[in-house]
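Limitations

Structures in this collection are predictions, not experimental determinations, and the ligand pose is part of the prediction. Treat each record accordingly. The example that follows, with S-adenosylmethionine as the small molecule, is included so readers can see exactly what is and is not provided: the inputs are given verbatim, and the output is the predicted complex.
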Amino acid sequence: MWLELTRSCNLNCIHCYAEATPNEGGSNLPFGDIRKVISELAEAGCSAIQLTGGEPLLTPYLMDIIGLLVEAGFKYIELFSNLTLLTDDQASVLKRYGVRVATSIYASEGAVHDAITRTKGGFEKTVQGVQLLRSYGIPMRIAVIVLPLNAERVEETVTFVREELGVEHVTLGPVLPAGRGREVPPVPPDWWRPKLTSFATLACIRKEDFAVRLHGHSCWYGRLCISPNGDVFPCPFVRNWLIGNVREQSLSTILRSDSLLRAWGLSKDRIEVCRDCEFRYMCFDCRAKAPTLFGKPRDCTYDPYTGIGNGVRWRDQTVAKVDQTPLAVGKTTLHKGGGQACYA
Ligand SMILES: C[S@@+](CC[C@H](N)C(=O)[O-])C[C@H]1O[C@@H](n2cnc3c(N)ncnc32)[C@H](O)[C@@H]1O
Ligand code: SF4
Ligand code: SF4
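Predicted complex:
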């Protein structure tokens, strides 16, 4: 569950899918609506949530929201923040409530990070925020989004995050074409070519994921994103599929709506070209990477009508590899761009 608390942000990243800016005042869900949503979510059995934005630390009642979540029995609460505004008091509350934190570092070099966030001095403050959280022993993960500006330095950045900031959990992801991300030119093709969907990435599937993919969407099945004006989407990056609005309907109405069932039930059987592919129940699907709501993702080179992808016949590889590879190979969490970088 993603709860976007605000569209305001003190930074102004060039790729921001939420199109957050410092000038987006007054677009927050009122506290009363948030209280209602939290109790409805808890009633529906939801226990994992990410608080995001925009910049959630700009929400004046953020710590009260976290208190409500804890009271309602949420077991997994993650705050996704750029950390530039984090205070010692807030860090101690996060520790007390057992909140996990995610943040974004774009480079080990401050000037590159600041060029991406278009805010001078932001890197220093984010690093200080990470250090403050580490001093409290708060569990953290760091997202490195790969753009043309930092693509050359990704390995260096991961080393910096792990060795200098002491945060082991790093996720790499591409810029998805949503919001301002649509205007960002693609990274040099050589960076991504080895990471395109391939038989090797398809083989990394667990039995339980395969079961979901038979009848539902591989990523957003069971998930919802609530935006700052109350609109509900299946994914923060797919805003052209409006499911409902929590200010106008109860969450239980939204959960029973045809629109949500259609979104959650979007297996590859309903995606153009993919519906004819023999790998469709093994394949991860990122709708943000597709040219249209039901189009084949752009990062797949496989043509199920010829059996050829990346210049080779996949079916031959399949026979050779499936024989040696158990279906449950374990979950890929640090994944360079095969579509499984996950923000929830
Ligand atoms: C929207 S931000 C909100 C939280 C916070 N303001 C921050 O930046 O860490 C959450 C994450 O989404 C990433 N993000 C923003 N736009 C993106 C895009 N077009 N494609 C992929 N990731 C994106 C950001 O880099 C950040 O890691
Ligand atoms: S990615 Fe995060 S920090 Fe950057 S503008 Fe968007 S909300 Fe703000
Ligand atoms: S054609 Fe579709 S289902 Fe087949 S491998 Fe490519 S993205 Fe996956």
